[in-house]
Structure formats: structure tokens, C-alpha cells
């Protein structure tokens, strides 16, 4: 199939509101919605960061559960799709193989459960591994830029600082995830380009709101709130720029 030279697009939860889609499109970003992965439990069954992992600007690994449903979407947008080895199942840890957080040349995950295809490609690309207990690493990690993150996970925060990554540790909660007690900051956000952090709702009621704004300002990143509601964990907003 012929590749389309559309360079900027995001993958979002298939249940995303039209209001959020409209806001993203105002920034001239094409929006692609995920299909349902029926093997996962309902709360995360459409989450992009559960079913796919971007290796670099040209390659993405996709869980075999939904590979046939997403293959052409990536090809049409100039990205090479690679079928992962791990078939996702409903319960932890059988649903975390692709939920790897990436900060510059580092990958953060519980590498006992990482998909083998991802591991091989990361190693080939010279990515350094930061092993943590948290399997939902991408959900738990808001990527601010190539050297800074926000997380509520103390284990992740403790490990990444050893590698010179700047961390803002925030309180758990204050983010919705329908069907579960609460969601995570990584799953409610997505870095678009180098300096725009899109967030799925307002953070003004978050106990660490001021600290978050100060941290973003320090790192020269502008927050863009997609609506006026409480943030919702949608499994990350995954941005793709194929560089064409």
C-alpha cells in the first residue's frame, strides 16, 4: 500500500470525546482512534499505550490482538508497523508487555514482562533500560521532554533520577479512569512536538497543580488542556511525526 506523506498524527483511545478531537485538530494534528482490544478488561480496552509501542519515528510495535486493525493506518501515515510477539490477555501482568515509557535514549519498564520484539528493537537502537517494578510504566509516566518526567510512582521516580532524569513526584489520584478507582498522569497526557503537553482535562483541582505548572514552565513546556473537565486516563496521547 502506498504511504501517505501526512507527518503529524496522534493515536488516541477510540472512546475519546469529539470535543477533545476538535481541540487536537485545531493544532492541525490528525487524530486516529484505536479499535477495541476485546481481550483486555473494559477500562483499558482501547488504551493506545497498552496495545502499541513506538520504537522511533519510523517504527511501531503493535500487539497481535489488534495488528490487522491498525497495520494499514500506520502504513498510510508513513510508519512501519511491526507485529509484537506477546498476545495481550485481560489481567496483570499479561496486559503490560507494550506499556513501556520512553525518555530520550532510556526505556522504563518491568523488563520481566516486556514484549520480546520490543526488547530486540530497543537494544538494536542503543536504548538503555531502567528496570522498575511498575508494569504500567507508560501509564504512570508523563513525558515532559527528553530529560524530565512527572509521575506519582515513587519506584519510578527513585530509579530514573539515577540516570539524570528530572522528576516531579506528585500525589496519586485526581485523574479519572472509569471502572477503576483512579487513573494515571501519563495516561492522561501526551507530549506533542518538543514543547506542548496535551492534557485530557483541567488540573486545577489536583493537589499538586501549582507544582506541575512550575515544573512545566521550568522545562519550557506549555500545557494545553483539551477540555474543562477532570482529566481522564485514556491510555496516553501518542504522537507520531514521521519526519517526511
> How far apart lie the N and C ends?
17 Å
Give a short account of the largest sheet.
3 strands, mixed
**Number of structurally distinct domains:** 1
Give me the CATH architecture, please. Answer: 5-stranded Propeller
The CATH topology corresponds to: L-arginine/glycine Amidinotransferase, Chain A
The total of helices stands at 7
Which percent band covers the strand fraction? 15-25%
The helical percent reads 10-25%
Mean pLDDT level: 95
Number of distinct beta strands: 15
The helix-strand sequence is: EHEHEEHEEEHEHEEHEEEHEE
- State the low-pLDDT regions, or none: none
Describe this entry's structure for a reader.
Strand 4, helix 3 and strand 5 (80-83) form a beta-alpha-beta unit. The two termini are 17 Å apart. With 244 residues, the chain is an alpha/beta fold. It has helices spanning 18-26, 48-51, 67-76, 116-124, 137-140, 154-160, 209-218; strands at 8-12, 30-33, 52-54, 59-62, 80-83, 101-103, 106-109, 128-131, 141-145, 148-151, 166-169, 189-192, 196-199, 222-225, 238-241. The strands form 5 sheets. The chain has a 3-stranded mixed beta sheet with strand order 2-1-15, covered by helices on one side. Strands 3-4-5 form a 3-stranded mixed beta sheet. Strands 6-7-8 form a 3-stranded mixed beta sheet. It has 7 helices and 15 strands. The protein is globular.
